[in-house]
Amino acid sequence: MPEPLLYAKDIHKSFGPVAALRGVTVAVGRGEVVGLLGDNGAGKSTLAKILVGLYRPDKGELYFEGRRVNFRSPRDARMHGIEIVYQDLALVEDLPIYRNLFLGREPRRALGMLDIEAMKREAEKLLREIGINIRRPDDIVRRLSGGERQAIAIARAVKFGAKLVILDEPTAALSVKETEFVLDYIGRLRDRGISVIFITHNIFHVYAVADRFVILEHGSKIADLEKRCVERPETIVDIIAQRLRPDQVGC
Ligand SMILES: Nc1ncnc2c1ncn2[C@@H]1O[C@H](COP(=O)(O)OP(=O)(O)O)[C@@H](O)[C@H]1O
Ligand SMILES: [Mg+2]
Hints:
alpha/beta, Rossmann fold, 2 domains, four-stranded antiparallel sheet, 10 strands, binds adenosine-5'-diphosphate, binds magnesium ion
């Protein structure tokens, strides 16, 4: 395997008496979509928060692009090219699309004036790229569907140079059609060489787009399976529900 983009080695994290992660090791390749799966409480979000510098691991090592990294804040992780998009998205509902795309990172002109025209031009281009042709940069985010919002939040991360985007339950609140729209967009990002960690407790939401599945259970990794070794999403469901041992699957 070529050098992975991200390598997290033997990550431990406890909250008081709760061991949320008990020595998890994962790798994410360049342009790879990893489905991070497991029941509620398995440790998925905790791992994501460590990867973006929100939490410090109690023990373990992180490597990004082959170098040891030690993120002190989300800003730190972002500077390396790792971004997270949460289910609640951090979009400002009452602002137009173009403002949301540049939130906190607005281009400015002389005397610190916002460069509105530049933002709108860029937003127009991004909307085309995402495939939301019916929306204008001026449209207020409140008007958008859940899938459109999710795609805009992802586009914002990518636009600022993310090489790895972590999506924490991006489809939890979406309809089937909206989920398909988001999955399609993620597939196009992968084609551009961007890596994605897609967190979900629903394998059916990620099966179509993932290249590999990592399953957590009570803070431990119990399976790490390439898509080509998993013929049907039901196999993953069976592993999570403990009807099937991970070592019974593989190729
Ligand atoms: N900030 C926190 N304080 C205390 N316990 C936490 C905190 N975050 C997560 N946990 C606990 O760690 C375990 C893993 O949680 P989490 O990573 O959110 O799981 P998942 O995202 O897979 O549902 C759970 O038992 C949860 O209650
Ligand atoms: Mg979670």
